[in-house]
Amino acid sequence: MAEAKVLSGAGLRGQVAGQTALSTVGQAGAGLTYRGYDVRELAADAQFEEVAYLLLYGELPSKTELAAYSAKLSKLRDLPQALKEVLERIPADAHPMDVMRTGCSFLGNIEPEKDFSAQRDVTDRLLAAFPAIMCYWYRFSHDGQRIDCVSDEPSIGGHFLHLLHGKTPSELHVKVMNVSLILYAEHEFNASTFTARVCASTLSDLYSCVTAAIGSLRGPLHGGANEAAMEMIERFASAEEAVEGTLGMLARKDKIMGFGHAIYKDSDPRNEVIKGWAKKLADEVGDTVLFPVSEAIDKTMWEQKKLFPNADFYHASAYHFMGIPTKLFTPIFVCSRLTGWAAHVFEQRANNRIIRPSAEYIGVEQRKFVPIERR
Ligand SMILES: CC(=O)SCCNC(=O)CCNC(=O)[C@H](O)C(C)(C)COP(=O)(O)OP(=O)(O)OC[C@H]1O[C@@H](n2cnc3c(N)ncnc32)[C@H](O)[C@@H]1OP(=O)(O)O
Ligand SMILES: O=C([O-])CC(=O)C(=O)O
């Protein structure tokens, strides 16, 4: 059994900053659990909507509850005209994470959370509307098309692919999107979730918590790593080139995106799952470069640094094989992690104290103010 990672030093590493009943990360013998369920079992057999319900409502739904929940989400997919107009004004070269942040924030203006008793309805609305926010902007700014924001796809993953590509997605692609959304849904006190909880602790509204969390997820050390990993993988034309390139990056002390983790010590339990699906997709498209390049980087990182791929690394090629533009990778993460963020906001609100740590002062000693004319 793997020993726990030594957690000390900067970045609040190893500090217990609160309690949660939502997930365990990196506990010996239990890689990642959502409300007690192993994420690998959920990814194998559940639908993302079931997992969202589990996180947001506390237990797995019955068949009837799931049908009602999925129907509720489907009805909430369309965007208000005012939001479409805002999205149409955002340029094509904007970062889609900025689009998500603006879309979420704007919806908070026109459909505000009037009372905390509406928190689940606001979350369900965002869960249903996020794929359209991303795709409406993308298709308008890139293809000049005003797409229909509703589809008859039963799942959120299928709905996203349908809006993006304008056609019914294959069964395999719907399955992989479903797995991906499950794997990304929740991860304890990661940076974006902690951001959401800090915001919630001031008794702010849910849209503010989610908007803040999107800002934290955007960075390449967190959710943005899947895009950065894709950009790196694409630079290599063969496994040999990838090995050489990785050795060079390590020699220059570059960070290799999609590797390492703040909590896991020698593997990320989500990796084996998404890697398996990335391989299936590679076979489907007849890939002979990207997947071997990814494996070569993976092998070199382990041999040289004992660093392992995190959830982001093989997500990069998996999404690429499904024809998803690289810049949309992190926004998909938003569509999923929203469930974890919101569940943490509910938990924070249910037992709140404002989050306000202390700082160790390392500045100059106290001194006398000097008026500007004498400086
Ligand atoms: C969904 C997610 O958010 S998962 C994370 C996604 N982020 C990435 O993939 C970005 C690349 N990875 C990283 O930057 C880091 O591994 C993080 C941010 C995920 C975790 O950071 P930390 O907890 O500070 O890492 P940790 O303490 O394990 O680092 C140990 C050593 O390995 C090095 N290291 C860690 N990850 C990497 C990496 N990807 N490439 C090269 N070196 C690395 C660190 O620089 C550190 O070296 P040092 O002791 O010489 O300074
Ligand atoms: O937990 C973390 O530090 C990063 C994260 O969100 C994840 O791995 O899903």
UniProtKB/TrEMBL annotation:
Keywords: Acyltransferase, Transferase, Tricarboxylic acid cycle
Pathway involvement of the protein, from the record: Carbohydrate metabolism; tricarboxylic acid cycle; isocitrate from oxaloacetate: step 1/2; Organic acid metabolism; propanoate degradation
Recorded GO CC terms: cytoplasm
UniProt GO MF annotations: 2-methylcitrate synthase activity; citrate synthase activity
InterPro entries: 2-MeCitrate/Citrate_synth_II (IPR011278), Citrate_synth-like_lrg_a-sub (IPR016142), Citrate_synth-like_sm_a-sub (IPR016143), Citrate_synthase (IPR002020), Citrate_synthase_AS (IPR019810), Citrate_synthase_bac-typ (IPR024176), Citrate_synthase_sf (IPR036969)
Biological process terms in GO annotation: carbohydrate metabolic process; propionate metabolic process, methylcitrate cycle; tricarboxylic acid cycle
Keyword Acyltransferase tagged: yes
Domain of life per record: Bacteria
Keyword Glycoprotein assigned: no
Pfam family, one: Citrate_synt
Reactions the enzyme catalyzes: propanoyl-CoA + oxaloacetate + H2O = (2S,3S)-2-methylcitrate + CoA + H(+); oxaloacetate + acetyl-CoA + H2O = citrate + CoA + H(+)
Residues at the catalytic site: H261, D312
PANTHER family noted in UniProt: CITRATE SYNTHASE, CITRATE SYNTHASE-RELATED PROTEIN DDB_G0287281
NCBIfam families: cit_synth_II, PRK12351.1
Family: Belongs to the citrate synthase family.
Name of the protein this chain belongs to: Citrate synthase
Organism: Pseudomonas rhodesiae
Classification lineage: Bacteria, Pseudomonadati, Pseudomonadota, Gammaproteobacteria, Pseudomonadales
